[in-house]
Inverse folding.
């Protein structure tokens, strides 16, 4: 649903506003890298703007910090209504390696609602382009939660209460459960 | 002079050609030593939790559901792809893959969860694992939990109804 909404609302051109709320600048460099002729996201109509009031999308880098949380919130509120937030980098997605530091509140999710996550520290420029392409519906996302089980319960579960001794034999009453 | 410099500029511009990568349309290979997200191999993992205690972002959580079942959760959201877990793993159960296209609209999508079955040493109570399933079954004192009903079920009771417990059960009790 979000995808169709995105395609409808943001079909032509996304203007992005680049908000760093306390990251190490690694992700900023990669975001700027994405705008260079080499990666050139302007072919998808993506344009960097200087003010949140002109932007459709906010690119968040860095965790939500005590000092910048309010400013981040204000920047988010200043954006006009159909708006998306991308969390770029592991800091923005989950707090990064400083998640338990005294000045870090946690992921930017705590301050602004996040629509797309691009993990990585920093994510490759390709990963950022991929995230944008997922958001505008050019490609499908590739990830899905994974659960590995080493083995299913390897032996049937015997309940001693279901065991009946009949002569030499031991009968297990609920054999169909086994 | 100025004409010459303009000509030079024009030559430089023409020689550069097209540099923009056709990225999302065509795949782009990563360098060989690139570290993408870690992939866990449940068949190799022995559940030692060395990765969990060495992860700088405390991204791998270990929960013991009961004595035999250990859950290893990799959440992925603040993983920095540093590769320390892969370095420290004694069984080489973690490989740093080349996957970087992990962008998602639901952060739970990059989660990995391992349900590890651990057998328990009857003397010290610590977990260890035998190499094959058959050897796990042959172990003396092999036992398992009734997880749903939260109680111990001793396998040997299935065969010994009236007699006293076998040796390994004495150690246990
Ligand atoms: S995710 Fe990594 S590169 Fe990006 S701001 Fe955080 S620490 Fe820096
Ligand atoms: S790659 Fe680094 S941050 Fe990610 S789970 Fe392994 S040790 Fe933790
Ligand atoms: S993945 Fe490796 S380090 Fe982590 S618990 Fe399993 S065996 Fe130990």
């Amino acid at each position: 649903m979000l995808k169709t909404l995105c395609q409808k609302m943001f079909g032509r051109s996304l203007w992005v506003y680049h908000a760093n709320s306390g990251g190490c600048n690694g992700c900023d460099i990669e975001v700027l890298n994405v705008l260079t002729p080499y990666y050139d996201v302007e072919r998808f109509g993506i344009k960097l703007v200087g003010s949140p009031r002109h932007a459709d999308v906010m690119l968040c880098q860095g965790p939500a910090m005590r000092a910048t949380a309010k400013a981040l919130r204000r920047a988010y509120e200043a954006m006009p209504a159909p708006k998306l937030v991308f969390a770029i980098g592991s800091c923005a997605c989950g707090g990064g390696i400083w998640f338990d530091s005294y000045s870090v509140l946690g992921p930017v999710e705590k301050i602004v609602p996040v629509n797309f996550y691009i993990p990585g520290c920093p994510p490759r420029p390709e990963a950022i382009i991929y995230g944008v392409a997922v958001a505008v519906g050019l490609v499908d996302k590739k990830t899905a939660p994974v659960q590995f089980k080493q083995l299913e319960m390897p032996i049937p579960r015997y309940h001693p209460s279901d065991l009946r001794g009949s002569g030499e034999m031991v009968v297990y009453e609920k054999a169909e459960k086994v | 002079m100025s004409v010459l410099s303009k000509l030079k500029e024009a030559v430089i511009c023409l020689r550069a050609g097209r540099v923009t990568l056709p990225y999302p349309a065509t795949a782009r290979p990563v360098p060989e030593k690139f570290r993408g997200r870690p992939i866990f191999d449940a068949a190799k993992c022995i559940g030692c939790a060395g990765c969990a205690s060495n992860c700088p972002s405390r991204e791998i959580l270990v929960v013991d559901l009961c004595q035999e079942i250990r859950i290893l959760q990799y959440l992925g959201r603040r993983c920095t792809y540093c590769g320390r877990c892969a370095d420290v793993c004694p069984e080489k159960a973690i490989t740093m893959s080349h996957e970087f296209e992990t962008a998602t609209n639901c952060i739970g999508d990059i989660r990995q969860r391992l349900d590890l079955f651990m057998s328990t040493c009857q003397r010290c109570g610590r977990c260890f694992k035998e190499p094959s399933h058959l050897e796990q079954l042959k172990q003396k004192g092999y036992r398992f939990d009734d997880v749903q009903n939260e109680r111990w079920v001793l396998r040997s009771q299935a065969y010994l109804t009236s007699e006293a417990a076998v040796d390994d059960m004495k150690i246990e009790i």
About this structure: Chain B is about 20% helix and 20% strand. Residues B 38, 55-57, 59-60, 79-85 surround iron/sulfur cluster (ligand 2) (CB under 6 Å).
